[in-house]
Amino acid sequence: MSSSEPSSRELMLQQWVCQALWVPVGSPVPPLSMVSGDASFRRYFRASWQGRSYIAVDAPPQHENSSAFINVCGMLRAAGVQAPEIFASDLNQGFLLLEDLGDRQLLPTLSRLRSDGETQRAEAIYQSALQTLLLIQKVPEKERLDPYDRDQLRAEMNLFAEWFCVAFLELELGVPEHAVIDQAMDFLEEAALSQPTVMVHRDFHSRNLMLLDDSAVPALGVIDFQDAVHGPYSYDVVSLLRDCYLRWEPETVTRWALTYWQAARADGFLADVSEAQFLRDFDLMGLQRHLKVMGIFCRLSLRDNKSQYLADIPLVIRYFLEVSRHYPELGDFVEWFNRRALPIANQRLPKSAG
Fold first, then answer.
1. I need a labelling partner for 249 at 20 to 30 A (CA). Which of 7, 107, 120, 307 fits?
2. Which domains does the chain have, with CATH numbers?
3. What CA–CA distances, in Å, run from 219 to 113, 130, 154?
């Protein structure tokens, strides 16, 4: 079969879409055009019928949890978040038919605004994103979600040693080195678990937010939320503002982060979290996320043949080094990272565009 021919699974999805849309027998079959894949096994296709566009999702059930997607989507929409409406689903096959939120992903728009120096317009978009995040965080049924607990946090951070250090850098880690890494992970784990908890999207950034209009404070659609959990309030804030695909100057990030903190306090949330504590929570949660991401991006390259993610690791390392130097509790780990990991990483990774 040539690469241009649809796979058997794609043909099954097309047939199912016809059934879901009640396409009459004998009518032209709506073609599926690939929209994107992502860092998972999911694939997204656009289908049009009777002048309306839909998104058909292929989420193989042996790899993806579509019931979680449906559950979280309902929670978000009930809270006023613009998550896509679900028109049909088949959990046994792993097929979904969704509202089409368009193809205006935030990342290209924000990248252009940064390049053009249009920080004011970018700030308006981030204001909308932070307002959306506050809606997510106020979802009252957060306990319905799995907890972002100690085991989950540690399993994620372990990806750093397993996939970044050992698999990608090919380091042979001795017992003393594991001890240094574990000490840092313990510190970041405790910092995360001490935070007030909310609904956490868990991948809230410019590739998972869709620009829906061009108003002064634009409406945003939210996607890729199926891994949502109940966990630390600062996780999604730092995921958005220290985005693994786009960097703003630290002073700008701090200003935007404090805008979130002030809005959360005005909403009666984080009343007991001081500005200094918030910035510490923001920093340390970001370090946990960025260590995890180093491992995930290497795994995507080595295991899943998605080598394009390696180009994003230099920015993630830059965040890690910029922030970690302010925390003496991480001094031994940062010294080890600079001495053992960074020189090899600099040789093997593509150069960052910044």
1. 307
2. 8-99 (3.30.200.20), 106-348 (3.90.1200.10)
3. 17, 11, 35
Please provide the DSSP assignment of 82-97 as one string.
Answer: BPPPEEEEETTTTEEE
Phi, psi of 44 (to 5 degrees): -120, 135
Which tokens belong to 94? 């792993």
Q: pLDDT tens, 146-199?
A: 999 999 999 999 999 999 999 999 999 999 999 999 999 999 999 999 999 999
- Helix, coil or strand: residue 217: coil
Judged by DSSP in three states, 15 sits in helix
Query: How far is Cα of residue 318 from the mean position of the Cα atoms in its chain?
Result: 18
Q: What angle is formed at CA 325 by the lines to CA 202 and CA 309, rounded to 5 degrees?
A: 40
- Strand segments (E) across the chain: 33-37, 43-49, 52-58, 86-90, 95-99, 197-200, 209-211, 220-222, 229-232
Angle at 144 between CA 138 and CA 147, to 5 degrees: 90
Alpha carbons 141 and 143: distance in angstroms, whole number: 5
Band (216; pLDDT cuts 50, 70, 90): confident
List strand residue ranges (DSSP E) for 227-316, in order: 229-232
| Cα 96 from chain centre | 20
